[in-house]
Amino acid sequence: MGEKMKGFHLIAMKVNEQLFGTKSKWSLVKIASNRRNLLIWFLVIAAVSILIYFIMDADQKERRKESLVGMCDQRARMLQDQFNVTVNHVHALAILVTTFHYSKTPSAIDQETFADYTARTAFERPLLNGIAYAQRILHSEREEFERTHGWTIRSMREEPAPVSDEYAPVIFMQETVSYIESLDMMSVEEDRENILQARATGKAVLTSPFKLLNNRLGVVLTFAVYNSKLPSDATVEDRIEATAGYLGGAFDVESLVENLLGQLAGNQAIVVKVYDVTKPSDPQIIYGNQSMDGDMSLKHVSKLDFGDPRRKHEMICRYLERAPMSWVALMMAAFIAAIGGLVGYMIYGGAVQIVKVEDDFKKMQELKVRAEAADIAKSQFLATVSHEIRTPMNGILGMLQLLLDTELTGTQRDFAQTAQDCGGALITLINDVLDRAKIEAGKLELEFVPFDLRSILDDVLFLFSEKSRQKGIELAVFVSDKVPEIVVGDPGRLRQVIINLVGNSVKFTEQGHIFVQVYLAEQASSMMELKNKASTNGEAFTFNTLSGKQAADNRSSWDTFKHLDDGIFFDGSETADTDQNVTLMVWVEDTGIGISEHAQQRVFTPFMQADSSTSRNYGGTGIGLSISKCLVELMGGQMNFTSRPHIGSTFSFTVELQRYKRDASVDLKRSLSDDIPIALKGLKALVVDSKPVRASVTRYHLRRLGIQSETVSCMRTAVAIFRKYWSLISKNEKLPDIILFEKDTWISGEENCFPLLSSSGQNGQSCKPPKMILLATPRDDKAKVAGFVDTVIMKPLRAKAMAACLLQILGINVKKPNGIESAEKSKSLHGLLCGKKILVVDDNKVNRRVAAGALKKYGANVTCAESGHEALKWLQIPHDFDACFMDIQMPEMDGFEATCRIREMEKEANQQQTTKNGSEMEGLMREWHIPVLAMTADVIHATLDKCLKYGMDGYVSKPFQEMNLYQAVAKFFDSPSIS
């Protein structure tokens, strides 16, 4: 209680600190609640919004300008590149004329060849309307030239060219410009200047814009053609002397630009104009019109270089439409203004509200302290309830057990046993509620110990065997041979989950079967694949399941089950696998009433039944499945289910366990494979069963006992097999030692086959007849009385029960080790703890009597103490006690403090012995350490780890049974274990 009040004090201090911090910020709240400050805030937000608008608008204009610059430069660059490509082709043609016309004798080029070549290569010069070659003719050569070609050199006016010092008549031309043949290209002054410039520089020369014959603007490109190859440093005189003619072509600039703009048409239309600005004062437009269209507020000029240094060209781009209003900037400014105004008003309103509710805030802090105290009280309440309920229940159940050990009449024993069963049911309910509380609080801890999974399943079947027999339903278990025999995990919690699922199945199933199956997760995945391919085989209402009844999930039908029962014998060895982790899949299948579709969503909800009639007809609290699901998730798995109303339910879950290392130093009980009598191993059995799944379950239990088995579907087949064996006796073929057959096989009308199976031989041969065993649910001794069978084995089948029955009918005597066969007798129980002196410390008189009575039953000498102080007096060193059971919650001095005092006394005594006798006698001295085992009804706070922390050696929860006390203390002595 002192620690609890200390916690409240700390919480109150934190609340005061928070309140103090609020007061230090009170001036800011007062400023925010002033209306004048709110008006100033609105004006500031308006100014900021306007500023943001102008900034964003300017940014948008800048991005629009950058976009125009990019588009204009791109078009200019592409126009310039395409123009240069065409110029290069014309230059290449000029070199071709030099090579094949002047360097070859005779010339390899004539008009037909030139026209054909230029026509074929016209695709390389799409921008040229036509191309022609004009030969350089001096005045002295004119007459001979005209006589050779048969025509007169003409001027551009279609008349004989006037006398000049030299001429440039066209001799080769493309077919598209055949009309310019014999025209003197130097008859026009501007053309003459361009030709003279071309031959002097050796580069391309352009004319000023003019209209072509197609009435579109263009320019003429001229290249000089030399009669020989000139060096790179040739002079102007050398170039004039070597000039043989001129190659020219007309560019359609308007078509070029239109084609280019068509290729680059985008979302934003722009106006493009191309100018010849050789004379800046008089720019000549090459493309576009003279009208001032487009957005005149923004333009961009891109320079063009067409290869003629004398000519200057540029491209001017404008947007076709004016810039739209910057709606984004306007909306953002409005948004900032609205948000800023709203924030200011919210701050103002919040500040006003804070001023008004300051007192309410203080009350809220007080309520917070109370809520945190209530949370602490909740845990304390659960611990108190646990202790206060479990303590009297321990006395009730303990005294009832002591009463049952006395001589009672049949009626008295029935009354006492009924009371004890009711008390056990109440404890189970309390445990479920506390488990749920511990799970919610995150205090549920899992064990990590090795255990035999198959033995646990056998124990679960034993718990429900009587109920299943009374109802006449099949209850069976099957574990895949690939599942390791020993695994490491929490056996108690795994048992709790399986018991809960099987218990529900037994409760809600009136006919059919309950089938528990365990596989590796990998096998389960394979079965899911087989399930998708399998089809239900059967007629009427017969299905290939354990009992022949239809199940909600067909994974356990023979179509999928037969792939697992393929004759692999169980040898008890673990699967060779380098992975230490193993994931198991557990299925619990029943053919009960099923779960309705609307109730399936709340199956795992605590304290919820499928419907209101369920609890009336079957009982229960509805908490079991919720706890089971939580436990499965704590063990690293998941739980699912499939249910069909009036057909049944199949619950499945996975758990993460580890493989057991046999060299680990862990105290583990002997597994079943270690207890199998050698006499059973190697026997042969014949299983007669018309249901293959049920026969596989029988073979599974026989494999666990080391018995080889074979399955047949009817007695007549069994007789045929025996006859085959009898014919092979001379070949040392071994007959089956036992025959196990189901009850429905016996009542199927084939009882006349039993004498044939039990006969001594055939054809005069004599052999020992096999033992006949009937498998029945419920027990039926008619076949045994009739002499047809040797014994009857009651189902559900369990390996240990089958082994005991087989040893009995085969007449095999197996000596039980360590005299355990007599441990069940009260006389032998009395000697298990004989000579052991045990101290029981508990403040409750009834609990002391129950613990003392249980320990005395095993022969212990018990002394009782009612407080921690009295226990310290009894355990003053030296003492002769062998163990101590210590209650935890006791007045004045609790069990934890008393244990710490005991350990301090032992430590001091051991140190004194070492100092007094010296190190040479250390191995001969007794080291004081009495085993102290906690007894507590507080299963929430008093966990095993906490008990070990305070120096205790073990833990027993109330209410405890006699076996719990014995098993807890026996491990510290050389006493035999009782299973």
Describe the structure.
The longest helix is centred in the first third of the chain and has 68 residues. Strands 13, 14, 15, 16, 17, 18 and 19 form a seven-stranded mixed β-sheet that branches. Strands 1, 4, 5, 6, 7 and 8 form a six-stranded antiparallel β-sheet that branches. The N terminus is likely disordered. The two termini are 43 Å apart. With 979 residues, the protein is an alpha/beta fold. It contains 30 helices and 29 strands. Helix 10 packs antiparallel against helix 11, helix 10 runs parallel beside helix 26 and helix 12 runs parallel beside helix 13.
Question: Can you give me a brief rundown of this structure?
Answer:
The protein has 979 residues and is α/β, with parallel strands linked by helices.
Structural class by sheet pairing and helices: alpha/beta
In DSSP terms (H or I, runs of 4 or more residues), the helix count works out at: 30
Roughly how much helix do the residues carry, as a percent range? 40-55%
What's the end-to-end separation, in Å? 43 Å
Radius of gyration: 54 Å
Q: Name the shape in a single word.
A: elongated
Count of extended strands: 29
The average pLDDT is: 78
The biggest beta sheet reads: 7 strands, mixed
Strand content: 15-25%
Low-confidence parts lasting 5 or more residues at pLDDT below 50? Answer: 1-13, 535-541, 567-576, 816-828
